[in-house]
Amino acid sequence: NSDKNVKLYTWLPNSAYWFSYSNQHNRLPRIGGLYALVRHVEIFSDALCLPPDMFIQAAVGQKFQLRQTPVKCQYLKICDYDPQLFPHTAYHGTSINVIRSILMDGLVMPSTIVSNGFRVCPPDNHIARGEEAFEIVDFANAIFVSPSIHYCSDPVYAVTFSHNDQRMIAVLQCQVKKGAFRAFPSTVESYKAHPDDDINAIEWRITCPAAILIIGILFIPVIKSRTEAARLRANKLEVDLNALR
Fold it and tell me: Membrane-crossing residues (predicted)?
């Protein structure tokens, strides 16, 4: 009862599925069923917990790989892949709050109802459903990824979260099947292209969820120290932080 990361799963008879309740994980929903207690692993305290079979540890007792490319990040490996079947690398910026759902159901088409009961909808700051763009009716009715780690790290896509004294974003690393996407120019007017960006082919539009394989998650620090950032900003504005206490 004291371990908040232990979840009760119930087997759905005559199927390959187990389910759990987010608010009733310590009570048996019925007598005579088949159950399993699974201790989820804290990826980031109070932000993300995952079942242990949902990712691959970098080493025994070590969740993350520390990477310098394509950007400095903590990398959580999800699975291996066949480069012949999924030859193209792309990225998808998201919110840490929906990562578990995405790993359960994959990246899905808009209006899909996923396993947690929610319907997937494009965010308000994206092209709306039903609107025509690039001569495509209902352009937003698709899954979008980008070959640019910088583009999908834009605040339009990647939502920051706090971890200790840092502000971070979560970006999915995906592999895409050959011929499964069409490339389009940027739709984010405020985005400033990086030298290695092809701004005219920076958004990949995909209409087949099975053409995308999520192989890892990059946790990228955008503010390495909130305390230090506040101090530097105060110095720039010539504000005495001690006087505000």
Answer: 204-223
Run of H or E residues at 33: none
Cα–Cα distances in angstroms (integers) from residue 174 to residues 4, 87, 209, 210, in the given order: 31, 10, 12, 12
Beta bridge partner(s), residue 41: 50
What are the pLDDT digits (tens) for 137-161?
Answer: 999 999 999 999 999 999 999 999 9
Please list, in sequence order, all residues whose beta carbon lies within 8 angstroms of the beta carbon of residue 186, skipping any fewer than 6 positions away.
151, 193, 199, 202, 203
State pLDDT tens for residues 176-234: 999 999 999 999 999 999 999 999 999 999 999 999 999 999 999 998 766 666 666 56
Q: Which pairs count as long-range contacts for 112-121, CB under 8 Å and 24+ apart, including other chains? A: 116/22
Q: Which domains does the chain have, with CATH numbers?
A: 1-39 (no CATH), 51-241 (3.90.228)
| Model confidence, pTM | 0.86
73: β partners = 67
